[in-house]
């Protein structure tokens, strides 16, 4: 997250800058002591950053890490100079974390702890001239004011960052909704185009079985199902016609007869219906005109309610379209027979 990135970057940048100023300050400790303190702080920074990254979703562990770091920073401030220590600015890490992740009161309490420890160490340890505590505070008043104003600025910037994060989440959600809407529009356009192709193809077919196969093919294509087929009743127990673009997904001969019996029973009722056949979910829709039943159009689909509702709507339209095409085909056959009969009678 952006919050973790800010905390991560500030920790290492502040560590480098404060360590550099501490190292070049000749009024502080010997080089060996400085090197030891810097090494300890670098190791602790790497460990803490790793722990913060690993536990960023666990508020209880993050609070525990913050408390541990506050105590560690207090121990660093004591030997490194108190209020005059460069590591006072490194202590802003915990102020940044508490401001971004917790309530404002934690941030101000954290500031109070740092200022108290730094002032006490400056008065009791670093104070070689035995300066009075009131005078010491007065001498560092500008530093305390600056530190307080920086904390206030951190809180204001954190508030702005949180608001921007919320706005970003809203924009992200809106973009996802727009993407979904755009996807549905493209799917609708493809659906309309496929329907137009199907209508054009159905009106030009001159073979009934091929017409049925094309109806099954476009049913599978438009509804995007795993398996589709057409079942029509005949004297030998029923006839299956599958999708020419898919491998035969029909059961073996024994299961085919059992499936035909269930389809016959399902075909006795009107309207779109669902059925569980051999642990598979099927949606069945009869194809019939006003005077004849042609058969059942069946598709295998998943069991989700939303998907089943969408497929049912598409099948309802496709069954009407298939019934019109088959009825037109039969009327053309009757018309051709009438023309032949009229010609024979004329002759």
Explain this structure.
The protein is of the alpha+beta class and 347 residues long. The model has no long low-confidence stretch (mean pLDDT 77). It has a 5-stranded antiparallel β-sheet, sandwiched between helices. It has helices at residues 2-24, 31-54, 59-80, 87-90, 92-101, 104-126, 133-139, 141-202, 208-223, 253-266, 305-346; strands at residues 227-232, 239-242, 273-277, 280-288, 293-300. The relative contact order is 0.06. Helices cover 71% and strands 9% of the residues. The termini are far apart.
Say how many strands there are. Answer: 5
Instruction: Report strand %.
Output: 5-15%
Report the end-to-end length measured between terminal Cα atoms. Answer: 90 Å
**On the 0-100 scale, what is the average pLDDT?**
77
The percent range for helix content is over 70%
Form type: rod-shaped
H and E string: HHHHHHHHHEEHEEEH
Alpha plus pi helix count:
11
Strand order of the largest sheet: 2-1-5-4-3
**Protein structure class:** alpha+beta
Main attributes?
11 helices; 347 residues; alpha+beta; 5 strands; 5-stranded antiparallel β-sheet; 9% strand; rod-shaped
Task: Write a brief structural summary.
Helix content is 71%, strand content 9%. By secondary structure, it is of the alpha+beta class. It is rod-shaped and about 135 Å long.
How do the helices and strands line up, and which of them pair or pack?
Elements: H1 2-24, H2 31-54, H3 59-80, H4 87-90, H5 92-101, H6 104-126, H7 133-139, H8 141-202, H9 208-223, E1 227-232, E2 239-242, H10 253-266, E3 273-277, E4 280-288, E5 293-300, H11 305-346
Antiparallel strand pairs: 1-2, 1-5, 3-4, 4-5
């Amino acid at each position: 997250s952006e919050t973790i990135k800010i905390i991560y970057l500030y920790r290492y940048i502040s560590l480098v800058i404060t360590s550099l100023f501490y190292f070049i300050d000749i009024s502080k400790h010997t080089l060996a002591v400085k090197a030891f303190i810097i090494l300890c702080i670098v190791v602790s920074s790497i460990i803490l950053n790793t722990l913060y990254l690993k536990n960023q979703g666990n508020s209880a562990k993050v609070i525990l890490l913050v408390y541990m770091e506050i105590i560690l920073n207090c121990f660093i401030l004591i030997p490194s100079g108190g209020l005059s220590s460069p590591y006072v600015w490194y202590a802003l890490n915990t102020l940044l974390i508490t401001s971004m992740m917790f309530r404002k009161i934690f941030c101000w309490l954290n500031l109070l702890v740092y200022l108290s420890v730094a002032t006490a160490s400056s008065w009791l340890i670093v104070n070689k001239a035995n300066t009075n505590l009131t005078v010491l505070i007065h001498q560092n008043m500008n530093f305390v004011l600056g530190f307080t104003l920086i904390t206030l600025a951190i809180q204001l910037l954190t508030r702005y960052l949180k608001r921007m994060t919320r706005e970003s989440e809203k924009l992200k959600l809106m973009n996802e909704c727009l993407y979904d809407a755009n996807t549905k529009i493209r799917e609708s356009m493809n659906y309309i185009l496929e329907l137009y192709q199907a209508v054009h193809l159905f009106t030009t077919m001159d073979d009934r079985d091929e017409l049925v196969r094309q109806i099954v093919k476009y049913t599978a294509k438009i509804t995007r199902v795993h398996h589709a087929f057409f079942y029509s009743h005949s004297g030998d127990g029923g006839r299956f016609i599958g999708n020419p673009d898919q491998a035969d997904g029909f059961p073996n001969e024994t299961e085919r007869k059992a499936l035909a019996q269930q389809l016959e029973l399902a075909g006795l009722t009107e309207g779109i219906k669902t059925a569980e056949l051999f642990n598979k979910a099927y949606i069945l829709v009869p194809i019939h005109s006003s005077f004849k039943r042609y058969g059942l159009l069946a598709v295998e689909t998943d069991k989700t309610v939303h998907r089943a509702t969408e497929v049912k709507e598409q099948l309802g339209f496709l069954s009407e379209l298939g019934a019109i095409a088959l009825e037109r085909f039969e009327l053309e056959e009757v018309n051709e027979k009438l023309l032949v009969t009229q010609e024979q009678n004329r002759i």
